[in-house]
């Protein structure tokens, strides 16, 4: 059995995490001005370098906005955020997504998969269809949830690559962590078999080069997760 090295977070990471929690909990309000870096360093008993680096990280994530000669303000992360913002929200929520985020990711999945379908389904080679079928078989044979979810992600990502659109696979890859969390939740509620059956059904339409069939299946299966009988919301 292989054990991994345990490492503790740095002061900079702890600083970022504490301010994220204060912002996400509402203790720090949008538009509120933060104390100066010197004051933050004194209050939190860390160096100015830790505070400066942490503020830079928080700004990249969309949590704060630094105004020249004015100070640092809490930003509206819904407007300024990135995928890192979403991952921070997941961590704050104990690894789970909020209902609006789950719904939003399913809606993005509909947009990306239907676009990929329009770009490639009718021109896929037999070899490409076989590659997708291998991922479906991996889902069917999976003994663990992690294996099934990994295969489901790879199925979607391979399909995106086949579209020859440079951005679709990059977007999907950037959402890997929340996508994994959602499909793990799905499998926990409905079983690995349901995940396999959904993806197998999509593959059958792909194998028949049925673009409209793929689009209709993606829309119906995702909407079933949004508002039908296979919802995965936590509340």
TrEMBL record:
The answer to whether UniProt assigns keyword Cytoplasm to this entry is no
- Pfam families, from UniProt? FCD, GntR
> What InterPro entries does the entry give?
GntR_C (IPR011711), TF_FadR/GntR_C (IPR008920), Tscrpt_reg_HTH_GntR (IPR000524), WH-like_DNA-bd_sf (IPR036388), WH_DNA-bd_sf (IPR036390)
Q: Which domain of life is it from?
A: Bacteria
Q: Does the keyword Transcription regulation apply?
A: yes
Keyword terms? DNA-binding, Transcription, Transcription regulation
Residue ranges annotated for the HTH gntR-type domain, each copy included:
9-77
Know the name of this protein? FadR family transcriptional regulator
Q: Which organism is it from?
A: Ruminococcus hominis
């Amino acid at each position: 059995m292989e054990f991994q090295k345990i490492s503790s977070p740095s002061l900079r990471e702890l600083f970022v995490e504490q301010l994220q929690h204060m912002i996400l909990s509402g203790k720090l309000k949008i538009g509120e001005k933060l104390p100066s870096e010197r004051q933050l360093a004194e209050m939190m008993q860390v160096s100015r370098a830790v505070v400066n680096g942490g503020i830079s990280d928080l700004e990249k994530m969309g949590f704060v906005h630094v105004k020249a000669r004015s100070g640092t303000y809490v930003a509206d992360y819904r407007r300024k955020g990135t995928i890192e913002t979403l991952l921070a929200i997941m961590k704050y929520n104990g690894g789970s997504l909020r209902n609006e985020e789950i719904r939003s990711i399913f809606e993005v999945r509909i947009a990306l998969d239907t676009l990929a379908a329009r770009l490639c389904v009718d021109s896929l080679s037999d070899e490409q269809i076989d590659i997708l079928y291998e991922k479906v078989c991996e889902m069917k044979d999976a003994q663990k949830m992690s294996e099934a979810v990994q295969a489901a992600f790879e199925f979607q990502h391979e399909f995106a690559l086949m579209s020859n659109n440079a951005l679709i696979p990059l977007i999907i890859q950037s959402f890997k962590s929340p996508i994994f969390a959602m499909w793990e939740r799905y499998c926990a509620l409905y079983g690995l078999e349901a995940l396999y059956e959904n993806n197998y059904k999509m593959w059958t339409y792909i194998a028949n080069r049925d673009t409209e069939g793929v689009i209709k299946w993606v829309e119906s299966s995702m909407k079933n997760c949004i508002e039908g009988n296979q919802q995965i919301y936590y509340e």
